[in-house]
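Re: the request from the purification team.
They wanted to know what the chain is likely to look like in 3D before they choose a buffer screen. I agreed to run a prediction and write the result into the notebook, where they can find it.
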Amino acid sequence: MSETQFGQVARYVEAFADRRLDLGSQRPWRGFLTDGRVWWGWEWQAAAGGSSGAGSLVALPHVQGLVFADDVGAFGQFVVEHLAPPERRGAPAPPSPLRTLFDPFLAELRVLLPTVETEPFYETKFGLWRRTLQGSGLVGPGAIGQAHNFAEHTMLVVAARMIVLAAQDGSLIDELPEAVADGFCAWLGDFDAGVDLLERLASSVSQYDWRAADRDLLKELYHDLIDRDDRKEFGEYYTPDWLADDVVDQVLVKDPARLDAAIETAARTLEAGPASNAAEQGAFSILDPACGSGTFLFWSARAVAKRIRSAHPLLAGRTREIVAAMVTGLDVHPVAVEMAKATLATALPPGGMVPLRVYLADALLHSEQAQQNMQGTLGLTSAQGQRIDIPAEVIESPRAEVLVRTLVDAAVGESSLDAEDADTQALLSEAVAQLSDAVADEGDHVWRWYIGNQVAPSALARNKVMAIVANPPWLVANDTPAGTRKDQLATLSERYELRPKARWSAKGDLASVFSARAADLYLEDDGAFGLVLPGSALISQTWESWRSGSWGGARVGFDYVASLDDVEPPPFRHAPNGTCIVVGRRLGGAAVEWQDAMLLRYSGDPEAPTVTEIVRRESKPSPYARRFRRGAVASPLGLCLALDPIQPGDNDTATVHTKASTKPPWTGVSFEAVVETAALVRTLRSQTLEPFVCSPDAWLIAPLTEHRRAVMELNDADFRSSMPHTHEYWTIAESRYARDRAKTAGATLSENVDYQRTLTNQLAAGASEQQCKVFYNKSGDTLKACRGPANLVADDKCYWYVAASVEEALYLSGVLNAECLQDAWRESKTSKLHFDTNPLKHVPVPAFDPDSALHARIVDAAREAELRASADRWVIGVASGRGGR
């Protein structure tokens, strides 16, 4: 006789009840039947005083033939009430936002800090914090030394270390305070009030299931606790989870065969033990060489664990160990490393303690710091210059961390050298002897940390990795603090031939050097990479060498590149050049052309963006590319640019107010002055330039010579006599200019107002009042053009051209404003911010042909557009209204 569905449920529930599990305050066992649409439920009721398992199922009256249809809310309530009541759910997920957990403790910490800041233990740890941050080479002087940053960094490290322990199975609450026993945060454990804070914090942290995190929690905590200005100084802007998940998906998930091979290699290597050579087994690591708070580590760990569950069931019991062995992070920031370890710990499946391969190390420069001798050892130098040689077998072993711990423990006297076998014992003996000497002279407090961090990048460089996923630092060279690191970065840029060569593009981007160097050092042949980069990587001339795919000893091919300019909200609001993704792989042969990569555009909701392929346009120059020129590069504006309205005075004079400068060292500089109207030159600013509308609102103060070929200097004989009021003002302005003149600026204000003759060349070109000029904006998202009189001057944010006829000017104005060409203009940019002359360098706008019927229609359309746009413009006279249309 076959078993009914009710009989099967009854048997299951009775079997559970028969185990006499101690449920405490939990509800009795329940059983449910469903076909996915209709639900039935019963509850086990034990017989009073009955033997083990005695009892029966009693129907739940509200769950008999229950149908929810499409009522999601009702089904959710059913789940909470019957399937997953709170007392059966285990520990809750961490609160969101996470700062609600840590804010009260940070407030206490800030109160405690002033009470101990004169204590020796505090001064020692504060000094260690400063030295550690300065060692990163990316931190400016302003944020270092500020007590509030020390307090916040202490809380972040304490929180991160406690989360690492709380995220593993079997952690005890009284173990958590021990997590802060070393490093700069250890000052909290050196006085009673600090110990009390740590114990209470540990109690709070242990109440949550940290593996229930669905994203990088530490990143959000960091952004909440650290002031935005300080984050900027530290150069820290961390990747949104959706973006890291997308990159990991492209690099790992969409190539399951390579991921499967890496998983199997990792499993074999771990089985082989300390004596195995990882390089012989093959590369299996996934590396983020600038891991920050660990966002890429989190999503990489999630992807690997998911693949093991779905495709490697025999390895499921070892998932935690394998994932921890495969996912590796490096960073130069000590606080970031602690956060990344915690983030990675929350992504791992349940289990005991495993090494988290996240290291405080300089992914760029380790080979300059660690000199390797002829025998293949890694030569380290202590603070006082003593040499310690780490054998190559240690570096290349998958158990390198265990061997380093064994080495250091023996050298500092915590244990005798007792390796797993005779070969390992002999291997470590000489290094132990060398390190013992250094310990005797210099102390024993940092060697495990120091050697481990030095060995990690060396091991990665020797053994290689199967994939790199990263958001490299976005600092430009000019913003990197001066010092040894900046000099080393410049050397690397030259070595990889990535240094910008154009005189106007001296701001080389650290991300280009970093990504090329990391791929060269660590990535195996055919290894994949996925990078989040400034949008300038797609188009900027400063990235042109990088886009060649020749990265030192590495040759790379690009699979696809994606612009994120149309994602809203954007991933990094602070990024003036936008954001992009670049995915590719290291090749065994020649590099693959950038133009062969698929070009994509992400748009819309970042959590579910619309992805479209962009068809590249063929680049051809227009004859107008060489005809348009940049406007007057006159500065500082607070000394030489006046805005409407001006007040006409006697004897052809006017009272003007200069526009206050907004950039240091001229911030706020502005003057009121009386000048001759002959010293005023009507000027069009890009801010007032609109399609088909020429509405100038500014005047350059420029005391020109009689023939308007130069700006007069103070000592010119005619200056005082011809323009006495202007000469008086210019004397004051020249004095102010000399005080803060930049080294690269003109020697005098007169020279700087006509910098590289960008003013007087315009006046000479527009000498005839019968001619007219065409103007368009230098920067922005939309190209805008208008025509104006020939004697109107463009500022340095505009480009100008003196047309041969009114019809040619109208033709150009019509073409440049055309809505159907705006995508072409934007795609021609070589900078996210600036058009410059690129639209005409890459889009073949033909020269105006008066006999062309098409050109004639464009002229007529532009003329009509001018009439619709404005009826009053080109007023260029000071008082008389001199001008024209």
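For the purification team: Confidence is low (pLDDT under 50) at residues 20-26, 367-375, 501-506, 871-885.
Please add any questions underneath this entry.
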